[in-house]
Amino acid sequence: MRYKGFLIVGIMCLIGNSCAYYNTFYNAKTDYNSAMESKKNSPNQKAPPNLLNKVIEKCGKVIKYYPKSRWVDDAIMLMGKAYLEKGEYDKALRKFEELCIYYPKSPFVEEARYLIGVTYLQREDYNLAIGSFNEVLRMKKGKFEDASSFRIIETYYKKNDFNNLLLVGKDFDSSYSKSPYLPRALLLIGNTYMEQGNLEDATKTLRKARSTARKIEDKNDIDEKYAVALIKKGNIDEGLTILKNLSERSTFQERTAVLTFEIVNAYLQDNNVENALKELENYVSLYPTGSYSAEAFYRKGLIYEEKMGDAESAISTYDKALKLNPKEDIYALAAKRSSVLKEIKKYKEELTNPDSSTDLPKTHFLLAEVYLFDKENIDTALIEYRHILYNFPEDTLVPKAAVAIAWVYENERQDSIEAINMYKFIMKQFPGTEYFLVAAEAIERLGGERGKRSEGEGENGGVSNDEIRNQNDEEMKNSETPMNEGNTEEKNDVKQKQ
Q1: Are the C-beta atoms of 330 and 295 separated by less than 8 Å?
Q2: Is 234 exposed, middle or buried (0-12, 13-18, 19+ CB in 10 A)?
Q3: Of residues 138 and 43, which shows the higher confidence score?
Q4: pLDDT at residue 12 above 50?
């Protein structure tokens, strides 16, 4: 009787231990599933860290306290997945590799190899990712074969390796026609064609992707890109209809913003500035704060500046964007545009209403620098530099302005003839100076004859003062920003130069 009692107690203890580690793992798995469900319904598509931490903690207990249990490989795999979701890639890799090394007969080995590739992909180690996915394909087990093939396409897309993407993509289309990854694969192929400017194949591929998509998120993403392809192809009304339908169904601010910006781009392609502004205004009325509202204001500023020539409204709108906590890249762009327009406005006002303290040549020079390097308006910069050459020929900034003109022709316009002519002008006008040496070296570099005058040249080398004046007059005539003959400029030039 005593022996039977010990046996029953022993069996109960074993059952108790088994229940303990199973319950621990079961709870970890329940937490993981809850985290994934929350991720699916989250605007930022991220799983709650607190749930993932619980998963890691419980899996760790199974591994530490029950190392001989049948659930250890399950716990290692789940732990790796939780680390992957948290973005702790090194820890995730260690767990997946641990499973492959110490549990080679585990049914999770193929998945672990696949997730190693996914982790490398998330970490942007693209070559290692492709190697891992190819290793899964060589296993020929089938369960993660199409997923690995799709991930190879995705990796090539992120690498901008479009030739290999299209090669692998065509094989995927023929080999995995029933795969749930086919719509996403076709989406990436269609995007690739679009980025290459092949709009015919882009719309054809994306149309096929639409017909194969079953998941709502796949349908929405594919419809968006299909609409963009149509718009780029010139079917603006059809594309806008699709984008507006998607926008009306959208419930997330980020998604609505992306669609709004695509709609705005479509209107701008159609030169419909009024409707483009209305779309942005509607968005900020729905979402008056946040980083996407900041981007909407930045885009409004660009329209005012580039499409309407309204510098005042552009500056005001850029400054509004800066107050709304924009993303880092939008902040930098809005700050630069606002600063540049304010500088232009300041210099233009000084030139329009000069007083005894105004250094006109310097102001023209600074304005030219802003146009060339900040606003990247080469034609207007050349006008300002040349204005110094023929209106202030004795000023110390003349050689700098001449070098700047030569630099523009050499580096921006790739016009070596005009560049050599200006360098020759510098050599004739400023012998024995550092500018002479710079010009001589440039002429030699460009293949001209160092310091030697060609037949028919003016006494200043490749170009005379009169020729500079005539060339400047001609460029001013063709420019959007006319300049008065004197040293002042019209007030409304500020708007016209944008």
Answers
A1: yes
A2: exposed
A3: 138
A4: no
* Rounded Cα gap, residues 448 and 32, in angstroms: 72
pLDDT for residue 476 is more than 90? no
- Cα dist from 184 to 163, 195, 224, 274, 427, whole Å: 18, 16, 13, 35, 62
Q: Which two tokens stand for residue 230?
A: 């149509």
d(CA 189, CA 227): 15
pTM: 0.76
Q: How confident is the model at residue 45 (pLDDT cuts 50, 70, 90)?
A: confident
In the predicted model, what is the mean pLDDT of residues 471-476? 50
CA distance between the termini of the chain: 100
Tally of residues, the chain: 498
pLDDT in tens, 271-318: 999 999 999 999 999 999 999 999 999 999 999 999 999 999 999 999
Question: CB under 8 Å to 44, separation ≥6 — which residues?
Answer: 254
Provide the pLDDT confidence category of residue 15 given band limits of 50, 70 and 90.
very low
Average pLDDT over every residue of 48-65? 93
> What is the DSSP secondary-structure string of 447-485?
T--TTPPPTT-BTTBS--HHHHHHHHHHHHHHSSS---S
Q: Pick the closest to residue 429 from 416, 415, 439 (CA basis).
A: 439
Distance between CA atoms of 58 and 77, rounded to whole angstroms?
13
DSSP 70: T
Residue closest to 465 by CA, chosen among 385, 386, 371: 386
Amino acid symbol at 402: A
Nearest to 72 by CA among 22, 19, 20: 22
Residue 19, token pair as written in the block: 């229940």
Q: Domain segments of the chain: what residues? A: 361-496
Would you state the pLDDT for residue 23?
A: 84
CB 350 within 8 A of CB 385: no
pLDDT higher than threshold 80 for residue 455 = no
Considering only the top CATH level, what class is 361-496? Answer: mainly alpha
**Cα atoms in the Cβ-side hemisphere of radius 13 Å centred on 316:** 5
60-79: buried (b, 16+ CB within 10 Å) or exposed (e) per residue? ebbbeebeebebbbbbbbbb
Dist CA 421 CA 424 (whole Å): 5
**In this structure, which amino acid lies at residue 143?**
K
Q: Are 386 and 471 in contact (CB under 8 A)?
A: yes
pLDDT of 458 higher than 80:
no
Amino acid letter, 215: K
Residue 15: strand, helix, or coil = helix
